Records
---
Amino acid sequence: MLELDTLHKSFGGKPALKNVSFRVEEGEIYGLLGHNGAGKSTTLGIILGMVAPDQGEARIDGISVQKNRASALRRVGSIFESPCFYDYLSGWENLRILSTYSAKFDPAATKAVVEMVGLGDRIRSKVRTYSHGMRQRLALAQALLPMPRVLLLDEPTDGLDPEGIKWFRDFVLKLREERGMTVLFNSHLLVEVEQMCDRVAILRRGERVFEGRVDQLGGDERIYELDVDPWEKAAHFLELQGCQILAPGRVSLPPELDPALMVAALVGIEVRVSAFCPVRRSLEDLYLEITR
Ligand SMILES: Nc1ncnc2c1ncn2[C@@H]1O[C@H](COP(=O)(O)OP(=O)(O)OP(=O)(O)O)[C@@H](O)[C@H]1O
């Protein structure tokens, strides 16, 4: 659905993107991560045809944004950087005006989208009376008006409170479930990304340094955290079985060893086992490892 092909971009001779490629499949939720200045917004800007790459191409559903922008973006909705609204007009008037820039205003479709984002009772109020969360919902309504197949979201949960973040997460997951929406978004909220995304890419100084599935972040490592007594006896036994002792209470099991059998064996040699838990590497662990 979305394809970035060897993108390069420099600003004033300083590279912002170097040879960045990735694909997002239809119905996938894909997260773009990286420190400040890593190149995330530049990437989204290129996909939206707002930034011209020095080399490479972005394609949406096979159509090149650089060669055929209007056609490529026909089924794309976006929230890019801080959405701007006419504060002295109502949410409804804003949607009416903004949607006529690219299509004919459709009151019925607009009403449906407004209800969907939960702004039904405040859509006639002036935008200057909106909270940050309501402005984000209005931006989401605007992004959904073209009936997109792809949503591009630039730090969509930035500044939202925990309830707003949860609402947003559930909303995006529902869009994917009910409409098969493809979503690409960048964020600094790693827990959020971990809970929402199927795959992530990490950019570092303009280069893609990682891409992988969120459910496979742990790789092939089998690390367990143990609460056992006495630890020395357990450690000695586990070492003899081929385990690697990483730290007190932390071991790596070789692939052929079944953890359940290890627990039984430890109990058999009179070690008290209170806990024997797999350690899952979080997205934050991986992110810090890669970007440090
Ligand atoms: N219009 C511009 N003119 C000059 N330099 C720019 C421009 N846009 C981006 N850059 C530079 O390109 C690099 C990448 O910026 P970009 O905004 O893509 O990073 P980012 O990962 O989105 O950062 P953040 O998380 O802070 O939003 C930075 O060094 C930035 O200063």
---
Amino acid sequence: MAGVKATIAPSMLSSDFANLASEAERMLEFGADWLHMDIMDGHFVPNLTIGAPVIQSLRKHTNAYLDCHLMVTNPLDYIEPLAKAGASGFTFHVEVSQENWQELVQKIKAKGMKPGVALRPGTPIEQVFPLVEAEAPVELVLVMTVEPGFGGQKFMPEMMDKVRVLREKYPSLDIEVDGGLGPTTIDVAASAGANCIVAGSSVFGAPSPQDVISILRKSVEGAQCKS
Ligand SMILES: O=C(CO)[C@@H](O)[C@H](O)COP(=O)(O)O
């Protein structure tokens, strides 16, 4: 797994939104690499969270990489506002982009953001291959390990087959996993080949978030040494 960096991204969905800036600062002090921002429209998923105005407010307080996961039906509408707001990564869902993914990726890149594609647990992994192999490719694949919409759900180990297939095919791709990740589930994800780890409740709910971040990182780095 040469060339992929262990990246730990606390999911700010589990933070205290009323104190977002200080929660973000705390996570970065604890060793987080990215801040994972879950943008939901109440349509693609049955939950409504934040959008560009909140990213813009947070951007005033931090230079951190803001890893935005768009759980929305019309990702195209979000590119311009999120770029202006200061988003760093823009990951849209393959299920809503069958027709226009090339346009999406080109626009995301043109706005200086890192393009990624996510897939729901029920979506076959083959659907993302063309996006990774395109002339203007996505640079990250987010394998959802729970149904998108809410934090605190149970990790789905059967999703690791998707991660293994991706890692085998694309040794230097950023492969992100999201949902139910924590000290008890990280080893299976890391050994399957995931290198970007999103974790919400296991980090924010821990007596020592710093220790959890460190356990996640060590597991990913350890798995890379073995491969
Ligand atoms: O995208 C999502 C949920 O849709 C995630 O980012 C969750 O927020 C992760 O939370 P935990 O499962 O780690 O609590």
